[in-house]
Write a structure and sequence with these properties.
The structure is a homodimer of 230-residue chains.
Chain A (H helix, E strand, L loop, with lengths): L10 H17 L4 H8 L3 H13 L3 E4 L3 E4 L1 H24 L7 H8 L5 H10 L25 E2 L8 E6 L5 H9 L7 E7 L6 E5 L4 E4 L1 H6 L1 E6 L4
Antiparallel strand pairs in A: 1-2, 3-8, 4-5, 4-8, 5-6, 6-7
Helix pairs in contact in A: 1-2, 1-4, 2-3, 4-5, 4-6
Chain A binds a DNA duplex (30 and 30 nucleotides) through helix 3.
Chain lengths: 230, 230
DNA sequence: ATTGGAATTTAACCTTGCCTAAACTAGAAT
DNA sequence: ATTCTAGTTTAGGCAAGGTTAAATTCCAAT
């Protein structure tokens, strides 16, 4: 019998889909062990669930080789992502949550809110296209902006850029980023960089300069905005 | 081994505690079948869960005779009730939910929100003592106002009262109540009533009169406010 | 071509919550 | 006092999701 992907997926299934979507988006593929790692469960548990998800038509599975979401699976994943990002936005804008504390809460709420509530929140926020971390919010029917940002580490000395996206996983890191006054939309010039994956120095609006370690800079998604420093 | 009632009870357990608390409050006792009925599950399922809850120290069970929450059980139940009522209040006041649509949503959210989020909502609402249906909101440490309201049907002709509480279960009923302009705080006089559980007629502020069926009137909790009509 | 190790899957089992069918009280009605 | 019955509990199952241990399979390195 064919499972009709009706309304309610279990919390667990939603988590799988979310994680698989992210793995596909980030690294192109979703291996069993990567899924297990991301969900903090044992690999055999993943094998079991993957089988069920494949039977439900949410993904395709080539044995020993990994997994790929079907249309239906992606659609579901994007629904969840939309919820997550709207919830994060709402908590930050309307309930004074900090940028860096919000992830956990959203993680639990995204499985419990109705479409109606999401729409209310979306409306209260003015139907934003991006969340406060700069990540695009999927539309209700599962469209998402395809992004072509580059990591800050791809910018050459002398070039200008705008910070676009900072991620939302690591709250330590977010706290630090916030403390530097970095947030999506901020413009900067790269004024110096050391070779061999060393730190780079950027100048922000107002002339303040900050030194950013390579690792961190590499996680900051930016848009090139000026060919050259003026 | 003794289960340490730590942080996270399952959704299912929370629902049991909530229902048992309500049954005890309403009818004094909580029978297996009443619990089953309220949760829309089969009686044997209740027996099973009751055993586990008793082992966890959340309630006491006398075989064939029903169940009684322990201190710990009541405490948990009140935590959930607090969540529920704050969420309902928040959705109505801040997100334009209707009085009568809010119950379902709160029912799901109450199991997913953190204490921190509840506190934010509570703060945004100005730390209300009652929810929009007039029900008292338990404090964070599990105190709840003991109410001594009387059903509208207990008021004699000629006496005055204030509506205090309208319940939150039946959304049809709530819609109707709202359409009559009845809400907690509204003052009225009883101007007539028919015998044998017939309808009563009340006069609202402004002089408008409404006829209320016995059943409905009996579900409206009121406070006596004047000995006699003036 | 073979082999060794890492990753994956299978097998066997556990817990939570639910179910139905059958066995058992408790208490009302005779 | 006995019986009948409604309500409760026990027994036995099932599905979802997880676990560990053992068997596979792929691939990369000899």
């Amino acid at each position: 019998m064919k499972a009709s992907v009706g309304k309610g997926l279990s919390r667990s299934i939603e988590d799988y889909l979310k994680v698989i979507y992210k793995l596909e988006a980030d690294s192109g593929s979703a291996q069993t062990s990567a899924i297990a790692e991301a969900l903090a469960i044992a690999p055999p548990s993943v094998s079991g669930m993957v089988k069920r998800l494949a039977e439900a038509g949410l993904l395709e599975h080539s044995r020993y080789r990994g997994v790929r979401l079907t249309e239906a699976g992606q659609h579901q994943a994007l629904r969840i992502l939309r919820r997550h990002r709207i919830i994060e936005s709402y908590l930050i804008e309307q309930l004074e949550y900090d940028w860096h504390n919000v992830h956990q809460e959203a993680e639990r709420l995204e499985h419990a809110v109705s479409d109606a509530l999401i729409d209310r929140m979306d409306q209260a926020l003015g139907r934003p296209s991006h969340d406060p971390h700069g990540a695009p919010i999927p539309t209700p029917d599962g469209e998402i902006e395809t992004i072509h940002y580059v990591p800050m580490t791809d910018l050459d000395v002398g070039s200008a850029g705008q910070l676009r996206m900072v991620g939302d996983k690591d709250s330590e890191r977010l706290r630090f980023i916030a403390s530097l006054g970095l947030r999506p939309g901020v413009a900067f010039d790269v004024v110096a960089r050391q070779p061999f994956h060393g730190p780079l120095t950027i100048r922000l609006e107002g002339g303040r300069e900050e030194v950013i370690g390579y690792e961190l800079a590499n996680s900051l998604q930016c848009e090139r905005s000026g060919g050259d420093a003026k």
